[in-house]
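Reminder to self: tokens first, then the designed residues, so the page reads top to bottom the way the pipeline ran.
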């Protein structure tokens, strides 16, 4: 879910674009299957982390069947909290020599 929130944090994206963004950001190490992606999207919609949007930037160039998703204020705060949690874990790993760099 965190990867999906990161994918929609800077712009609205449709499902396939989310899958592409996650794969690109992880250098191909994480490839979301459609079942995983849309199951997560359903839960995230129910939890208020994202919303489906109807406005499109270039509707004439887009497939009208695509559904676009946008992060909500609540979703942004959840993503920020998770990023802070991960940053703390990384500092701890660096402190004990499990990650490159200094704490």
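Designed residues (103 positions):
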């Amino acid at each position: 879910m965190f990867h999906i929130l990161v994918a929609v944090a800077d712009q609205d994206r449709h499902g396939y674009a989310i899958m592409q963004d996650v794969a690109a950001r992880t250098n191909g190490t994480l490839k979301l299957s459609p079942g995983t992606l849309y199951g997560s999207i359903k839960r995230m919609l129910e939890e208020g982390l994202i919303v489906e949007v109807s406005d499109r930037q270039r509707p004439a160039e887009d497939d009208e069947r695509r559904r676009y998703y946008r992060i909500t204020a609540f979703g942004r705060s959840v993503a920020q909290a998770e990023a802070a949690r991960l940053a703390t874990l990384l500092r701890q790993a660096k402190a004990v020599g499990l990650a490159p760099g200094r704490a």
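The chain has a mean pLDDT of 92.
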